[in-house]
């Protein structure tokens, strides 16, 4: 049987952008938040970032070498995965844990499924979930920002809000009071001078990075705005119409990081605009439910991973109208 190359009718969209170009733009967008992580967490932050990035690149190189496939590290996707994994773990996490998480992200989640473009879960978030399930104490031990590398903070803003609920202080007003008592202000959260993972603390620089990606056309505004905006609206409504509580929830944790840099991953998000709205809305509802009603203070990672699993179903049933289609 002769093999036939079937080309669909025009118009065809051509682009000079390749994977390495896209990954370079993502790295540029992540640079401000990376510098903030280094500023606030000093040597501990640097070691964590280097361990995750080197672990990711090294494991992808080794996998290609062992399986005798062409090395794919030049597309920089492994660097992005390693950096995003570092952004999602506490500064000072033991180096071997960082490397183990990177190996899981690259080998198990990405390469075993065929490499970039074939994984159905976001590798960095899957690596974070793996580390949290395996080493919960280490993954919830936070360094306080500042010059003292040994200073440990007892809780993140989300932990304080969850603690307020456990102490019967109410859903919103008690949580806000708890943050005020701890000396955590909106301004501190906006600038990043709080406990948390390496890359999630500085809201301002994450927003700048996200805007850069939208400006360059690397991502669409649809998913970040739907996800982050809906979480704000839901926490406002479910928190007793407390705008300050909703703002704290929006700036806290990995909501901005996840919404702009991981929810928007090309491979694990829907192809159509309508599908992307549905996908982001599902993730927002799950994140809000985990934060407000679950036993764990943060729900961003699990919300995105769960939504990733629904992408094939969304793409199957949500379609754009075909150009030139004639309705029956």
Automatic annotation (TrEMBL):
Pfam family, one: NQR2_RnfD_RnfE
Keyword tags: Cell membrane, Electron transport, Flavoprotein, FMN, Membrane, Phosphoprotein, Translocase, Transmembrane, Transmembrane helix, Transport, Ubiquinone
Transmembrane feature ranges: 21-40, 46-64, 71-87, 125-144, 194-214, 221-239, 245-264, 276-294
Subunit organization: The complex is composed of six subunits: RnfA, RnfB, RnfC, RnfD, RnfE and RnfG.
Family: Belongs to the NqrB/RnfD family.
Function: Part of a membrane-bound complex that couples electron transfer with translocation of ions across the membrane.
Protein name: Ion-translocating oxidoreductase complex subunit D
Protein's organism: Peptostreptococcus russellii
């Amino acid at each position: 049987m002769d093999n036939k190359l079937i080309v669909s009718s025009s118009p065809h969209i051509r682009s000079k952008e390749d994977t390495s170009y896209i990954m370079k733009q993502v790295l540029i967008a992540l640079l401000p938040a990376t510098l903030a992580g280094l500023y606030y967490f000093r040597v501990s932050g640097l070691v964590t970032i280097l361990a995750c990035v080197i672990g990711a690149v090294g494991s992808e190189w080794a996998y290609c070498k062992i399986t005798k496939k062409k090395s794919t590290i030049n597309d920089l996707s492994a660097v992005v995965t390693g950096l995003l994994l570092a952004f999602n773990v506490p500064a000072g996490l033991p180096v071997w844990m960082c490397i183990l998480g990177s190996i899981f992200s690259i080998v198990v989640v990405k390469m075993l499924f065929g490499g970039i473009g074939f994984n159905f879960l976001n590798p960095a978030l899957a690596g974070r979930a793996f580390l949290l399930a395996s080493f919960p104490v280490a993954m919830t031990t936070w360094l306080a920002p500042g010059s003292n590398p040994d200073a440990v903070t007892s809780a993140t803003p989300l932990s304080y809000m969850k603690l307020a609920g456990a102490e019967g202080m109410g859903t919103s007003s008690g949580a806000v009071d708890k943050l005020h008592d701890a000396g955590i202000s909106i301004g501190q959260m906006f600038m990043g001078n709080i406990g948390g993972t390496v890359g999630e603390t500085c809201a301002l620089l994450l927003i700048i990075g996200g805007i850069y990606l939208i400006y360059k056309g690397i991502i669409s505004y649809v998913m970040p705005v739907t996800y982050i905006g809906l979480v704000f609206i839901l926490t406002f409504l479910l928190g007793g119409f407390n705008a300050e509580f909703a703002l704290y929830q929006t700036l806290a944790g990995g909501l901005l990081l996840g919404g702009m840099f991981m929810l928007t991953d090309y491979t694990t998000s829907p192809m159509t605009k309508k599908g992307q709205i549905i996908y982001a809305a599902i993730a927002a509802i799950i994140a809000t439910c985990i934060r407000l009603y679950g036993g764990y203070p943060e729900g961003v990672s699990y919300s995105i991973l769960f939504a990733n699993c629904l992408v094939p179903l969304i793409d199957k049933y949500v379609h754009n109208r075909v150009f030139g289609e004639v309705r029956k």
